[in-house]
Amino acid sequence: MNPFINLGIRHDIVNAISELGFENPTPIQEQSIPVLLTGSNDFVGLAQTGTGKTAAFGLPLLELLDFEVNHPQALVLCPTRELCLQITNDIKNYAKKMNNVNVVAVYGGASIQDQLRQIKRGVQIVVATPGRMLDIINRKAIDFSQVKFVVLDEADEMLNMGFQEDIDSILSTTPDEKKTWLFSATMPSEVRRIAKKYMDNPFELTMGEKNTGNVNIDHEYYVVRARDKYAAFKRIVDNNPSIFGIVFCRTKIETQEIAESLMKDGYNADSLHGDLSQQQRDKVMKRYRERSLQLLIATDVAARGIDVNDVTHVINYSLPDEIENYTHRSGRTARAGKTGVSIAIINSKELGKIRQIERTIGKKFIKAEIPTGFDVCEKQLFSLLHKVHNVTVNEEQIEQYIPRIMDEFKDLDKEQVIKRFASIEFNRFLDYYQNAPDLNAPADDFRTRDGERGERGMRDAGGKSEYTRLFINLGSVDEFNRGDLLGYICNNSKISGRTVGKIDVKGVYSFFEVSNGDVDQVVNNFKGVEFKGREVRIEISGEGTSTTRTGGGERREGGYQRREGGGGFNRERSGGGERREGGFNRDRNKSAGGGGFRDFSGKPREERPERRRRF
Ligand code: AMP
């Protein structure tokens, strides 16, 4: 039985939401639906966007209203046209198997006549943005005297957008005895004030800590010099080949410029801002929703209310002026129980702002390093190979070409063919990233505005972090977990699991902390180790130290150039010098350790002596 039944939702609604894939209530639905179904409380729900708020109030409304009569009984106010359409659509979907349910969307930028006509025909639920709603009220075209419930959705956003007075005027036309349900992602004092003003002893529900961001979002920041910002941004994007992201800029002009530069540079990006016509905005959003656009470059205002699931990254190309806006931006990812990353690209003067945001969201940022050109090439290569490996082959269509394809490759063995396929995309990145400099702002830049030493400098100056953060190239996609890591460390060294600090398993990589004194032992212990067929790579992460090492080699010094001389994949091009100590050069020297390029640089795997230990 669908658990929504136990919450008190009737069968025809449950059947409809089951078809939408709602098998279990989200936490906010579980906790708010029973309260709201009583119909006798004012209510304040502090919850992020994407947590299932719409059903949390939408389902109780469908239970509580009388659909035998056709006058407005519920008014939902929300900040944007997008959200308005979405809520209307959602409620209509929940009510798909009910009769006589009339929901009208009232919003600006569309024909008011159509909306007036729909209202005239009869409506029980009005979903509206404040400006257009007030316009219709002023035309005396709607009667709210029998409204029983008012929902203020994304109340903080509505206040941010300056709708306070409009909301006051609208609510003054509704009966005093109505119940008000307020939802907000954050609870600044302005929202507290309206809660006080309109509500009588409301039932308060806080999902997670007050002002805490979504726990499924990882927050990362990168420190770069202003002049390197765009290049650093592109590198972050390139290092995430399957990114589906929203990039926030501070102004319309910046939004437009970044989008244009990206398009010129061959990225699948477009902009969304207030200078576009509604039609243009709809078009961009349609492409983004359909995923024919990979990067949406947006201003805060234009991106409000965007509900697209599966956004993998939110990138703050510029930090917002208002800290509250950071929560709204990051809330565009990790929706509906998914995970996501919110990235801030900052200069060293903005570290203070990061600390402020940390206090507001109640969560720490991870300081990340702009990947080297080499890292990006490696990432892109394996992403491509993964795609090739998993591609669906249309046997029927391709069959006719097979003889010609075979003929084309008849002089090449399997390894040579693979190398050539891999190189098609790879060479593009290789060309671009040759000589790519290190874009991380040097430690000397880490001074705060008032001259204090910043985080990295402080540590260098003896600011005592007991732990060093290590990067490992394994993550949840490798079915790698904390237990695997702890087990391996403890079984292969004299280190106790208790001295291992925070372990942060991510998608394709992870971070873990070990005591400073244990670092060398741990790094050495992972040399030449393999996990489920993947060679393990450990590096000291940028946080806590200013050098990053690969199996003992100094990686940051020479950046990409240095690697190029000795890199496995360069052998074909340059013959390769033996300049680099660590990583895959080792492999070619047939010593322990080595990078992921083994299969492309040396002999076929099966011919090589097995040196790696399994983990
Ligand atoms: P909302 O916070 O209402 O915008 O919801 C975010 C997303 O989660 C929307 O795509 C909803 O369709 C989806 N959703 C809401 N509740 C559930 C549920 N109980 N099970 C699965 N998906 C849900």
UniProtKB/TrEMBL annotation:
<dbReference type="InterPro" id="IPR011545">
    <property type="entry name" value="DEAD/DEAH_box_helicase_dom"/>
</dbReference>
<comment type="similarity">
    <text>Belongs to the DEAD box helicase family.</text>
</comment>
<dbReference type="Pfam" id="PF00271">
    <property type="entry name" value="Helicase_C"/>
</dbReference>
<feature type="short sequence motif" description="Q motif">
    <location>
        <begin position="2"/>
        <end position="30"/>
    </location>
</feature>
<feature type="compositionally biased region" description="Basic and acidic residues">
    <location>
        <begin position="600"/>
        <end position="615"/>
    </location>
</feature>
<dbReference type="InterPro" id="IPR014001">
    <property type="entry name" value="Helicase_ATP-bd"/>
</dbReference>
<feature type="compositionally biased region" description="Basic and acidic residues">
    <location>
        <begin position="552"/>
        <end position="590"/>
    </location>
</feature>
<keyword id="KW-0067">ATP-binding</keyword>
<dbReference type="GO" id="GO:0005524">
    <property type="term" value="F:ATP binding"/>
</dbReference>
<feature type="domain" description="DEAD-box RNA helicase Q">
    <location>
        <begin position="2"/>
        <end position="30"/>
    </location>
</feature>
<keyword id="KW-0347">Helicase</keyword>
<dbReference type="GO" id="GO:0042255">
    <property type="term" value="P:ribosome assembly"/>
</dbReference>
<dbReference type="Pfam" id="PF00270">
    <property type="entry name" value="DEAD"/>
</dbReference>
<keyword id="KW-0547">Nucleotide-binding</keyword>
<feature type="domain" description="Helicase C-terminal">
    <location>
        <begin position="216"/>
        <end position="385"/>
    </location>
</feature>
<keyword id="KW-0378">Hydrolase</keyword>
<dbReference type="InterPro" id="IPR044742">
    <property type="entry name" value="DEAD/DEAH_RhlB"/>
</dbReference>
<dbReference type="GO" id="GO:0005829">
    <property type="term" value="C:cytosol"/>
</dbReference>
<feature type="domain" description="Helicase ATP-binding">
    <location>
        <begin position="34"/>
        <end position="205"/>
    </location>
</feature>
<feature type="region of interest" description="Disordered">
    <location>
        <begin position="540"/>
        <end position="615"/>
    </location>
</feature>
<dbReference type="GO" id="GO:0003724">
    <property type="term" value="F:RNA helicase activity"/>
</dbReference>
<protein>
    <recommendedName>
        <fullName>DEAD-box ATP-dependent RNA helicase RhpA</fullName>
        <ecNumber>3.6.4.13</ecNumber>
    </recommendedName>
</protein>
<dbReference type="InterPro" id="IPR005580">
    <property type="entry name" value="DbpA/CsdA_RNA-bd_dom"/>
</dbReference>
<dbReference type="InterPro" id="IPR000629">
    <property type="entry name" value="RNA-helicase_DEAD-box_CS"/>
</dbReference>
<dbReference type="InterPro" id="IPR027417">
    <property type="entry name" value="P-loop_NTPase"/>
</dbReference>
<dbReference type="Pfam" id="PF03880">
    <property type="entry name" value="DbpA"/>
</dbReference>
<dbReference type="GO" id="GO:0033592">
    <property type="term" value="F:RNA strand annealing activity"/>
</dbReference>
<dbReference type="GO" id="GO:0005840">
    <property type="term" value="C:ribosome"/>
</dbReference>
<dbReference type="InterPro" id="IPR014014">
    <property type="entry name" value="RNA_helicase_DEAD_Q_motif"/>
</dbReference>
<dbReference type="GO" id="GO:0016787">
    <property type="term" value="F:hydrolase activity"/>
</dbReference>
<keyword id="KW-0963">Cytoplasm</keyword>
<dbReference type="InterPro" id="IPR012677">
    <property type="entry name" value="Nucleotide-bd_a/b_plait_sf"/>
</dbReference>
<dbReference type="InterPro" id="IPR050547">
    <property type="entry name" value="DEAD_box_RNA_helicases"/>
</dbReference>
<dbReference type="GO" id="GO:0009409">
    <property type="term" value="P:response to cold"/>
</dbReference>
<dbReference type="InterPro" id="IPR001650">
    <property type="entry name" value="Helicase_C-like"/>
</dbReference>
